[in-house]
Amino acid sequence: MTTTLRRANASRARHRRYPERPPWRTVALTAATYVIGFIFIFPYLYMIITSLRPQTELQSSAILPRHFDFSAYRALLSSGLLHNLLITVLIAGGATVLVLLVATPAAYYSARFRFRGRLLFLVLVLVTQMMQPASLLVGIYRQYYVIGGLNTVWSLILVNAGFNMAFAVWILTAYFGSIPRELEEAAMVDGYTRLGALRRVTLPLAGPGIVTALIFTFIAAWNEFLVALTLTSTPNKQPLTVAINNFLGAYSIAWQNLFAASVVATIPVIVLFAVIERKVVSGLTAGSIK
Amino acid sequence: MLTPLMWIGPALALIGFAVAWPVVSMFHTAFLRVNSFGLVEGGSGFDNFRNLFADQAFVGVVERSVIWVVSVVVITTVVSLGLAQLFKGRFPGRRATRWAMIAPWAASVLMTAIVFKWMLNPTSGLFNILGHHLGLVGSLNRADPLGQANTAFPWLIFVAVFVSLPFTTYAILAGHSSIPEDVHEAAKVDGASPWHAYRTVTLPLLRPAIVVATLINIMNVFNSFPIIWAMTHGQPGYSTATTTVFMYILKGSDIGESAAMSVINFGIVGLFTIVFLAASGWRAEVE
After folding, report:
1. Do B98 and A277 touch (CB under 8 A)?
2. pTM value?
3. Which residue in B91, B101, B166 is closest to A26 by CB distance?
4. Which of A28, A78, A95, B92 could be a cystine partner for A160, CB 3.0 to 4.6 Å?
5. Are B129 and A165 in contact (CB < 8 Å)?
């Protein structure tokens, strides 16, 4: 353990030294990355700028508005969009809870035990990770038509949970697998049952993995659009994405109101995503890039 | 037998209900005749497929899907290789720029597409205003760039590349971090030029990362719906629609034919899944 740590520290120290290259090159490369970074956040900054533009300046040819105006946000508070936000929170929250409830035991068991059908189960999970609702849309629609689940929140919770569970199983299996089983065994020697050891020792150590799975599922369900567009038909059951899309159908689009709603729908997830940024790649590529 | 089921049973049940059921239901619907009220009027054999293939728009939609997937994925991979090269170095403020880069990945693709639609607005869109200020555009009133396929489709590809870049760049950066520093130093000692060293040493070592990221992108881009839907609805006609968008539009008029399109899309995704499993070394992963 200590040698690994020391080696990790040594390699980090070696990396931290800036490479030897002429200073003007470092300056140019750094400037280039700032410009690129700016390009990537620009659409979202522009979203904010437009949401603060007064109605009268929407057609103006000035890039920045002369006055900032919060009336689009006040309009948001008094419009039905708050209800759509609530639907989004219910869908994303419900799907996240469901995913954690079913993925955690499955991942723990597959990481700890070799049982018959384990390989089959993990391949099945990998295959579901490759599947997206878009290629199964008609099937999804017919399913909920037949069982009476059209235009309901629970159907969207189930679809989002089903299609995002694979990522959680993958990332959690990797985390549980990396926790030495001796730790659990020691706890069991101390008188804990297996479940007690799992709860007191293993789960806390797998915390970062659980947080990653939680945030990833939440964001994916929060952003989901196509299935919600297909399964819902009345505004009181539509999440924010569908409600925002409805703006585009209007004869004259109220852009500043549209973008006030978009800011609420977008900025929180960008901030949340920054928390798990590094771990997501390994989960999505199922560890094939080490 | 019973104990494993207690632990993995709930996960299996969720997969069965939310994923497997739609697969069966989709195949079933593709061979049914369903009227516009959603009522089943009996089996239809291969009629739905025959109708689909006979549809005037079908060939164009398939060709466009191929152009869509190939151009978005190729451009994304090439640009990401460059971005990863730039971002892998150490420089002040690296963390902040990397965070800026994830924004299009975290944000809903629908929102990003809507912002670009607004920036392309023919009267007061940002691109138009900028062009006017720079003297490139004479009048502020010009044709809608999203109004016809030959100008709209390149913009749709641009937005799809824009939202695909962060994940791809991150995947390639993960590949970079697995290459030991000594390899680069060895190449330098041998007197290889930077470009030669990149081509013969770095690129082959990045191969696994590139292959996996590319396959994931192929599936994401193939299944992509919000960009085209928000910006053009696949219009005018079906001239900016891919098979995924076409399937969605068909659902409104003939759900059987839409299911047939769905089955074909599903088959293509299935094919890529097999390639992905083979390329990602899944066996080593699960064992």
Report:
1. yes
2. 0.88
3. B91
4. A95
5. no
